[in-house]
Amino acid sequence: MDSQIENERGEQKEMAVRQSTSILSPQLKAMIRIKKKYLKKHLTDHVSNSARLGLNGSNCMISDGQPKRPKRKTKRRVLFPNDTLMFKPKKERNRSKHFLIFFCVIIFLQVYNAILEDDTLKYDLEGLEKTLHREVFGQREALEELMDHLVDYLSTYNHQQPLALSLHGPSGVGKTHLGRLFARHFRSVIGDKLVVQYFSKHHCPLQETAQHCASKLAKRIAEVVTLAEEEEQIPFFILDEVELMQPPLLDALKSYLKPDQKNEFLNVVYVFLSSLGQREITAHVLQNGSIAGAHKSLQHTLSGIHPLWTDPAVKVVPLSLLEREHVILCFLEEMTLEGFYPDNTQVETLADELAYHTAAEQRYAKTGCKQVVAKVNLL
What we know:
The protein has helices spanning 2-23, 26-56, 95-123, 125-135, 140-154, 175-190, 200-203, 210-231, 247-255, 278-288, 295-305, 324-337, 344-352, 372-377, and strands at residues 163-168, 195-199, 236-240, 269-274, 314-318, 356-359, 362-365. The chain is of the alpha/beta class. The strands form two sheets. Strands 2-3-4-1-5 form a five-stranded parallel sheet. A two-stranded antiparallel ribbon has the order 6-7.
């Protein structure tokens, strides 16, 4: 009976708890569950920390009995795996420094080019080039080579050695005419006193000894060079008919080409005009149809004649044979100067009267334009 009464009371209590829990809202139930989980987790962490502190010993406890947090040991060196590339941190570069250097280089080049242009303008090399191409026929390659040497040399005043242009070619190709054009041009830009034309037959006749001629030439060169040094100009010596010069004269010229001289003797331009090596030039043009590549054989021949042409200061420039069309241009030029009306039929007839070499369907005049003046005078 008593047990029955206790069971009824238990059922009544359970029914009361169920009724009380059913009254709670779902949100409140969720909060209760979360709180229970948090308390359970906090209790677990506290137990694990207490066990870890107990293993560390008495040094982990402070005087008041509270646990002391252990200090982490920091390694001084940083270890990297063996297969890892290590790079030092890059310092920031100042780009303005590079810009300043680049700007200075540009300014320097502009100033340098301005100086070179002033020197070349002083000698009017552009006008000289136009004159040569207009009045000298059939020598385009030789004229370009000559102008390259002159531009390189005359672009500055201070030099380590003189410049000697040695022009070689058969008779009638325009060597003497080139010498006259050089003399006329440079006399107009630097004055008559600084340009000397030397003709072997005229300035060194047969009755005079070669040694006497050499001493006179050396004296003349010294006078002009001294005057040019005072005026800060580069003098020009144009020597024609070099093939007629005897060894003492050539020796005197070679002595002035040495680099170990006074400064005034280093700033000089010599132009040698000669028919030496004309056989080699003729053979080369007839075989190849052009003057290109004739320097080697010509240089070999000249070096056997005199040591003058072995000097590095001497620039050998071969002149080509003239073709028939170039001879016709010479006739037209001469007839115009003499006041004749240029009749093409008459010019063709006069050109056919000359002797020619024939090679590869091309005709080269044996005497160039040398006989043109004489034939026009007969008209």
